[in-house]
Amino acid sequence: MCTAPQVPIHDPAAASDLIRRSAAARAVESTAMNATSSRSHSVFMLYITGSHAPSGTQLQGCLCLVDLAGSERVQRSQAEEQRLKEACAINQSLSALGDVFAALSSKSGHIPYRNSKLTYLLQPCLGGHGKTLMLVNINPEAASVGESLCSLRFAAKVNGCEMGSKGAAPRRSVVTAGGAGDDGELGGLGMV
Which are the contacts of 14, defined by CB distance < 8 A and separation ≥ 6? Predict the structure, then answer.
């Protein structure tokens, strides 16, 4: 599992700067379908800590923003060599994410979070008390109807899920006065 640095931020300008730096680091390349095709998923995690001074209670949470690279029909994208490897990895991780949603929907005893780095990273967001919102971007062109239908079917699978099912990662939500989270940190921003 890759680890990303957590960078403390103290104002909106620092957050904007970090978002710009992470966007600049995202891999994009040209394919036959798209001049700037995402070659990776982007995961941005904002850890937030709030305090209630009268009770001495701190609440912690995480806002996880994920931009999934789109699935790719290799025949249409004409991906070769490195682009082909990237397309296979993207498709495999999206398939693993679909498997997690299917397991959550069926209330399976086993949720396959460990089948990909993406699903393992997103486990706290998809299980436990996480809330999930998915926006799907589809191409209105007739030539892309197959990919658009695939995306809509994936969204329908996600919509059929009841989050907070089995397999949830342990969550830290409340810290008493004078303490910090399990990792000793009070907040920060992580990017992958």
Answer: none
pLDDT digits (tens, 9 = 90+) for 34-51: 666 666 787 888 888 889
Locate the DSSP E strands across the chain: 6-7, 28-29, 37-38, 42-52, 57-67, 174-175, 188-191
Rounded Cα–Cα distance for residues 62 and 127 (Å)? 13
**What is the distance between the alpha carbons of residues 57 and 42, in angstroms, rounded to a whole number?**
33
Q: How far apart are alpha carbons 26 and 39 in whole angstroms?
A: 8
Q: How far is CA 113 from CA 31, 90, 117, 174, in A?
A: 30, 16, 8, 25
Residues shown for the chain? 192
Phi, psi dihedral angles at 49 (to 5 degrees): -125, 130
Radius of gyration from C-alpha coordinates of the chain: 19
Task: Give the residue from 59, 63, 62, 73 showing the smallest Cα distance to 180.
Answer: 59
3-class SS of residue 47: strand
pTM of structure: 0.69
Dihedral sign for Cα 141, 160, 48, 114, please. Answer: negative
